[in-house]
Amino acid sequence: MSVRPASLTTPESMLLDSSREVTFKLTTTGILTFISPGWIGMVGRQPSEAVGRRFEQVLHPDDVASAATAFHAILASGLPQRGFEYRVRHASGLWRWHTLTAVPLKDETGSIVGIEALARDIDDRKRAEEAHERFRVGFERGAVPQTIAAPDGCLLRVNDAFARMLGYVPTEMIGRPFADFTHPDDRADGARALDALGSRSDTFRYEKRYVTREGATVWTDVNVAAVRDEAGAPKYLIATVIDITERKHAEEVDERLKVSFELGAVPQVVTGIDGRLLQVNEAMARMLGYSRAELEGRPFTDVTHPDDRANSTLHFSEQIGGHDPVRFEKRYITRDGATIWADAHIVTVRASDGKPVYSLGTFVDITERKRAELDLRHANQLLEEATARANDMAARAEMAGIAKSEFLANMSHEIRTPMNGVIGMTGLLLDTELTGDQRRYAEAVRGSGEALLALVNSVLDFSKIEAGKLGLEIQPFQGVT
Predict the structure, then answer these.
(1) What average pLDDT does range 280-303 have in this prediction?
(2) What's the topology of domain 142-248?
(3) What CATH homologous superfamily does 266-365 map to?
């Protein structure tokens, strides 16, 4: 009985030994009865290792069910099966993809007695398809903005992340040149990138600005790779675009801070967490009389006044430990040995995990203010001393006045008593029989005594006035009309 394939190959195909194709035959029960020598090249094994086994035993476990379905479909319908894909383990241990075209083998009566198949190795194609699918999924769904452009810069595809970054939807961008979305000042750089990729480079990286739908500027880091054909000409360009706007803004701020630090009139230092001066600006170096190179790398305590080192170290430790910012007054020693007072304001720059990286100190020279405060304290001290002396002198003068008043009062009293006696006795003497000369003499004595008594009374009144004890007497008098 002769057996003929329904439709597959010429007899020569049964002898193929290509490393990419192999033919084999199976019984209606699925037993492999023949495998061409091409099996060696495709699988790395001898055909005899598989002949006599069921076909399921050489397939990947995940492909057994679909293979059995295709096998039974051929037997049931008598029709060929084309394009069935499955995996076979290679001698290296890797599973490789094959594609199969199978036809039923029929006898003279038309009954199916087996199956003949032609298998081709499509592993490279399948892996390329898988890689392409992974790229497609990664491209379309990835969080990183990406574009695919023609060699002339026309956008063929853009992913959602790129379109979203610029405020568009992908369909609004596809078909337009990337220059339409590029900042006008950066279009020349884009043209140079296209030229480089078209002639000599496979990759090109540069920074550029895009303009969003709303007109805002987005800074990006663009990495472009050229995919070339067999002749080496670029087929298309794949670009990965990273938004670096925040970094650029930070760099601009850093640059302004650097210029402010370097050229600013306010003395500033950057100190490491070990207490060494990492950077010193010109104003600080000038204030201390050193060059920047002479100060950088030294501990800050080297130029701190010896009496202030302990306090400065304590403030530094507290500020590094988290108690910042700190502000305090301290003294520095200049190159010439002079003392400078400074108002110090220290802040700590920390990493994202909160660990200190360095501290930034800003200083104001307050030497003149401190000198003025010292002069003022000295003047106040002298004034206090002068006031104390004046108060002492006033107290002494007051005591002397009191003593004088007491003396005058006592003396006036002591003088008035005998004086009243003299006046009284003179009055009695004048009441007696006297000669003219005696009466004249006695009257002179009485007049002098009364004058002296009036003088003593006046002195006593002045002493009362000084003592604040002056009193008023009520005496009758007759006014002049």
Answers:
(1) 91
(2) Beta-Lactamase (3.30.450)
(3) PAS domain (3.30.450.20)
